[in-house]
Amino acid sequence: xxxxxxxxxxxxxxxxxxxxxxxxxxxxxxxxxxxxxxxxxxxxxxxxxxxxxxxxxxxxxxxxxxxxxxxxxxxxxxxxxxxxxxxxxxxxxxxxxxxxxxxxxxxxxxxxxxxxxxxxxxxxxxxxxxxxxxxxxxxxxxxxxxxxxxxxxxxxxxxxxxxxxxxxx
Length: 169
Description:
Blueprint: E1 2-9, H1 12-24, E2 32-35, H2 50-53, H3 56-80, H4 90-113, H5 125-129, E3 133-140, H6 144-154, E4 159-165
Antiparallel strand pairs: 1-3, 1-4, 2-3
Helix pairs in contact: 3-4
């Protein structure tokens, strides 16, 4: 199992130094990401993906579910109460409207959710806007103590955020 750690850093220089230290204890570069204000140059650090920074994935899931249910209901209504002069093939019509609803719901929800900051990052938004840098590290559970000890001893100025299971992204 893996865990996601959040570290609030005062500047990008400390971020670069910390990334090098984490790589020295065998953490992969692909597991270390940075979130910063748009005008802060990342200087070679990996920026967090859209899935890590926004509610896009949640929006896709929610849109598919709600849209699928709406499509299913529309299909059932169309089969039970067909429009005048139209004969619908029951199962095919229901499946088609369900898939169409799920697709449309996913699209609309994704367009909305891509602009909503990820709920885990909301507590860090104010500091990021002030120019601080958020470091996101996904690590195996057994390495948590080693990483926490490293950061506490070498960088006491770093604010350690939540430790939570990595579920996706």
